[in-house]
Amino acid sequence: MSTPIRKPYEGETRRLLLAFDIGTTFSGISYSVLDPGYVPEIRPVTRFPSQERVGGDTKIPTVIYYDQAGHPCAIGAETLAEGIEADAEEHGWTKAHWFKLHLRPKSRGSLILQESDPVPPLPENKTVTEVLADYIHYLHRCAKQYIEETHHNGSKLWDSVQDDIIYVLTHPNGWGGPQQAQMREAAILADVIPDSDEGRSRITFVTEGEASLQFCLSNGLSISGDNEHSGVLIVDAGGGTIDVTSYRKLKDGSFEEIAIPGCYFQGSIYVTQRAEGYFHELLSGTRFKEDIPTLTTRFDRNTKHVFRKDDEPLHIHFGSHRDRDPDLNIRAGRLTLSGEVVAKFFEPSISCIVEAIKTQQQTAHFPVKSVFLVGGFSASTWLYEKVKEVIEPLGITVSRPDTHVNKAVSNGAVAFYLDGVVRARVSRLTYGIKTYVDYDPTNASHQSRAHLVEPHSVHGKPILRNNFSCILPKDTRVKETTEFRQGFSSYSSDIRELRKKKHDILAYCGGLSHPTWINDEAEQYLSVCTVKADVSSLKPEVIFSERTGSHYCKISFDIVLQFGMTELKAQIAYFENGVEKRGPAQIAYGA
């Protein structure tokens, strides 16, 4: 299974494509210089300022230290400097880490199953958008320096493209419009794009699951189930989330989702959190209590990654040779953990992945025949072998790339923009709008609500409010080009009230296959976004109402939505002299 041969770039001028994969614990940058007539190449940034190791790495910590005035004093690779923790303590710096998780959807309507463990607080007087902006600004600076240093005439290259850079930002499967809006605002605050329609259009989003698929394809990795009648499941196991997405390949070489993607808070940071809880339980009340942070850090950076067998002990060095307490399994400054204990730290995350795979298998529109593990957490041999042990007896092959796991998402994000092989996606929820319907006394459902009938305030006809008009049912495969339309008629005795309209797009989160009345399950409906449109160009129809004895104005138009892309798009459509015309519509997300 591989992507079609990449075509030469067809643009008229040279451009730069930058992809930022801002992960919970580590981040990466990949890019491509787009030269007209040349086939684009995907390159990762492998060297960052302050990196000590020659040759660098493709991933750097998603960490920022702020001074007491709220200014960043160490970011990313700079936070790996020797003695940084001591400097932070001495100068009163505040550490911002795992801050990406503050963006996560809080509602039950999201795809994310929330982990109960708390997320570290943001620095005082900082919003998540501000912290994210500081980190984006840093990544942008790193990309600039790397390109200037590694390309021939790099400074001239950067100067020629810097005002028109295309950015691709990645995010977990369970995130949507509200999170994308905050990330776009962070990019503006970071001063990498201008606060204009043109600037905002230079930001594109892709889910980590889809970026991982693109990475697998662009690297020619062999995945079984390479036909229209079976699917492949990509498991992106990262620091914070486990993202699972199922696809099948179509005859034309493109792909489509075949199940609702999943997103779970059971990434590698939760293994570390469980280890930290164990250290607190073991050492609280002892003279080694102050060593818990050191033990946790060394477990996170070393022990967690080398764990392979539950019948072999692991040792964490944290103190001097004289530190000893046999009752606590501490000898010569080393804490010894049995393999069985460490296995328990991993168990909830492994169980989560196994159950997520089974859920995808059960709900996919086509049988899943193979699973591909990518992401930094998938590099764990213990995790890989335990998942394989349970899943392969189900007739599903489990594999992972031998190398390049750390740059899967950032490289895949560039490939997403260049190749875009996913042509259809599965709707996550049932979407629609709140409206009213004319009362029908012959309809049994209407009869049961007869006590709620009221006259329309303008034309006086009997109506029932709180009707849910479905635009897109849940679990529907939607092509990128598919449009979903919802017709509207608005009435007013004052034409000025009809010039601008807005409508909330709702998501239904309950269990009904055909939800109809919002007040039956009011708590199951969430406002996803608001679509706003200027309809002043529409010519109103003037109608006389015999019920009220007065004239009123009526306009009719459609809101046109596209759900099949990685970002919701909207337009308005109306007819003028028998010809359909289109106009822009804005999508606004609440806080």
Show unreliable segments. 108-115
**Counting H and I runs of at least 4 residues, what is the number of helices?**
12
**N-C termini distance:** 41 Å
Instruction: Based on Cα principal axes, name the global outline.
Output: globular
Task: State the secondary-structure class.
Answer: alpha+beta
Helix content: 25-40%
Beta-strand share of residues: 25-35%
Q: What is the count of β-strands?
A: 31
- Major sheet attributes: 10 strands, antiparallel
| Rounded average pLDDT | 89
Radius of gyration: 27 Å
Helix/strand layout:
Elements: E1 15-22, E2 26-34, E3 43-44, E4 60-61, E5 63-66, E6 72-75, H1 84-91, E7 94-97, E8 112-113, H2 128-150, H3 154-161, E9 166-171, H4 177-189, H5 197-201, E10 203-207, H6 208-218, E11 231-237, E12 242-249, E13 255-257, E14 262-264, H7 268-283, H8 292-306, E15 314-317, E16 330-331, E17 334-337, H9 339-363, E18 368-374, H10 381-391, E19 397-399, H11 408-419, E20 422-426, E21 430-438, H12 444-447, E22 454-455, E23 462-472, E24 477-479, E25 484-492, E26 500-508, E27 525-534, E28 541-545, E29 550-562, E30 569-576, E31 579-588
Helix pairs in contact: 2-3, 2-4, 6-11, 7-8, 7-9, 9-10
Characterise this structure.
It contains twelve helices and 31 strands. The longest helix has 25 residues, at 339-363. The radius of gyration is 27 Å and the shape is globular. The chain has 591 residues and is α+β, with helices and mostly antiparallel strands. Strands 21, 22, 23, 25, 26, 27, 28, 29, 30 and 31 form a ten-stranded antiparallel beta sheet that branches. Strands 8, 11, 12, 13, 14, 18, 19, 20 and 24 form a nine-stranded mixed beta sheet that branches. Helix 7 packs antiparallel against helix 9.
